[in-house]
Specification:
The protein is an alpha/beta fold and 375 residues long. It has 13 helices and eight strands. Helix 5 packs across helix 12, helix 8 packs parallel to helix 9 and helix 9 crosses helix 13. The termini are far apart. It binds NADP nicotinamide-adenine-dinucleotide phosphate. This is Dehydrogenase/reductase SDR family member 12.
Length: 375
C-alpha cells in the first residue's frame, strides 16, 4: 500500500518515541538535550551583558555598598590573577579589605599583584593590604602547605574565602596525586581548603565569616553526582559535563556546611553569568565565538561575588545560591536535577574518604612553596 509523506513522518516520530522509551541511554541523551536547550534559551536572556544591565537597573541599589567597610577583614581568593577573581580582588581592596591572592603560578601571581598595585594608587594603603601566596588548589599537598603557611604567617582568621579558581579540562587527565583534574580543582581542593581553614574562620571578627563558591549556571543541567566523582565510569569523557557536575557539587557542599557547620560562617554559592575570560575562550571556543558580543565583562562577573562578601549578613541566606545580587533557583523547570540531603551527605563522605586516602601522600610531598607570602 503506498504511503504519503505525512504517514511516513508519523511512523518516524512514533519509531523515535518508542526508541526513546525503551532505551534508557537514548532517553538520557534526549533529556540532556532538552535541559541544554532550556539552559541556552534562559541564559541568552539572563546571563549575558544585557541581562546584567537589566538586573542592575531593576534590583541593584546604591545602598548595597553604602555601609560596606571591610577594614580589618582578610579575604582569600583562589585564582585571583585573572578574570573574575582579579576583579573581585580589586573591588574588595577598594572596600578596605586585606586581600590575599592565592595563585598557582608565581609569574602570573606577581604580574597580577603589580597590576593591582598600579590600579589602586589613590586608595589609602590599599597596595600594602594585598598579599600573594602560591597555591595550586588541585593538589592537596599544596592546599595543606598553604594552610600551614597562612597560619605561620601570623595572619588573622580569614573572614571571607572565595573559591574562584576553576577549570574545564579536556581530555581527561590526572593530577600528580592521581586525581582527575577538573574534580581536583573545582571540588576536592576547595573542600580541603575549607576544612583546613574553617576552625579559624569560626573565630573571625564579628562572627561573620563567609565561604563563597563561584559556581556556574552550567550546574543547572546536571543532577548531583555523588558516586563517580572522577568521571571514570562513563565514557567518553566529557569535560563540559564533568565541569557542570563539579559546579553542582559546589552548590551541594555549601548546603552541607550550611546545615552542619557553625552559624558564625555563612556558606554561599553564586554564578557570574557568561563572562569574557580565558576559561570560556579556551575551554569552549565555539560557544565563545558565537556569544562573544553578548558576554559580560569580568567586572560584571565579579559583582555578585563582591556583593556576597560585603552585603549585610541579614540579607543573605546560609546555603543560598545567588545570581546578580539576588537568590536564584537551583533547578530549572522540567530538568530532573533534584536531589536529597542524603545525596549531599554521600558526596561529603566521599570527599572525606579522598582526604583520608591522600593524607599520607600529602605529608610526604609538602616542600616549602617557592613563593613566600608577599606584601
Ligand atoms: N567565564 C565564565 O563565563 C564563567 C561562567 C560560570 C562560572 N565561571 C567560574 O568563574 C570562576 C573564575 O573563572 P574566570 O571566568 O574568571 O576564568 P579565568 O580568568 O580563566 O580564571 C580562572 C582562574 O582559576 C585559576 N586556576 C585554575 N586552576 C587552578 C589551580 N589548580 N590552582 C589555582 N588556581 C587555578 C587560573 O589560574 P591560571 O591563570 O594560572 O590558569 C585563573 O586564575 C571559575 O570557577 C569558573 O568556573 C566562569
Amino acid at each position: 500500500m503506498p504511503r504519503g509523506p505525512t504517514t511516513l513522518l508519523r511512523l518516524a516520530v512514533a519509531a523515535a518515541a518508542v526508541a526513546v522509551l525503551v532505551s534508557p541511554r537514548l532517553r538520557g541523551r534526549v533529556m540532556y538535550g532538552l535541559k541544554a536547550a532550556q539552559f541556552l534559551v534562559h541564559g541568552s536572556w539572563a546571563y549575558t551583558r544585557g541581562g546584567f544591565e537589566r538586573h542592575a537597573r531593576e534590583r541593584f541599589r546604591e545602598r548595597d555598598w553604602a555601609s560596606a567597610d571591610l577594614s580589618g577583614r582578610h579575604v582569600l581568593i583562589t585564582g585571583a590573577n585573572s578574570g573574575i577573581g582579579y576583579c573581585a580582588a580589586e573591588s574588595l581592596s577598594r572596600l578596605g579589605a586585606c586581600v590575599h591572592l592565592l595563585c598557582r603560578s608565581e609569574e602570573r601571581g606577581r604580574d597580577a599583584l603589580t597590576r593591582l598595585r598600579q590600579q589602586l594608587p589613590a586608595e589609602a594603603d590599599a597596595a600594602s593590604r594585598l598579599f600573594l601566596h602560591q597555591l595550586d588548589v588541585s593538589e592537596l599537598h599544596s592546599v595543606h602547605r598553604f594552610a600551614r603557611e597562612y597560619e605561620a604567617g601570623g595572619y588573622p582568621a580569614p573572614s571571607v574565602l572565595v573559591h574562584n579558581a576553576g577549570v574545564m579540562q579536556q581530555p581527561r587527565a590526572l593530577t600528580s596525586e592521581g586525581v582527575e583534574v577538573n574534580f581536583a580543582t573545582n571540588v576536592l581542593g576547595p573542600f580541603a581548603l575549607t576544612e583546613l581553614l574553617l576552625p579559624r574562620m569560626v573565630t573571625a571578627p564579628g562572627g561573620d565569616a563567609r565561604v563563597i563558591f563561584v559556581t556556574s549556571a552550567g550546574m543547572l543541567t546536571e543532577c548531583l553526582e555523588a558516586d563517580d566523582l572522577e568521571y571514570a565510569q562513563a565514557t567518553p569523557f566529557d569535560a563540559t559535563r564533568q565541569y557542570s557536575r563539579n559546579k553542582r557539587q559546589q552548590v551541594a557542599l555549601a548546603e552541607h556546611y550550611a546545615a552542619h557547620a557553625s552559624d558564625k560562617v555563612l556558606f554561599l554559592s553564586c554564578h557570574p553569568g557568561w563572562v569574557d575570560t580565558p576559561i570560556l575562550r579556551t575551554s569552549m571556543p565555539s560557544f565563545y565565538q558565537r556569544t562573544q558580543s553578548m558576554l559580560r565583562t569580568p567586572e560584571q562577573g565579579a559583582d555578585t561575588v563582591v556583593w556576597l562578601a560585603a552585603a549585610p549578613r541579614e540579607q543573605l541566606v546560609n546555603g543560598g545560591f545567588y545570581f546578580d545580587r539576588a537568590p536564584a533557583k537551583k533547578h530549572l523547570p522540567l530538568s530532573d536535577t533534584r536531589y536529597s540531603m542524603r545525596d549531599v551527605e554521600r558526596l561529603y563522605a566521599q570527599l572525606q574518604g579522598y582526604r583520608r586516602r591522600l593524607e599520607p601522600q600529602v605529608a610526604r610531598a609538602s616542600p616549602p612553596a617557592s613563593l613566600d607570602a608577599q606584601n
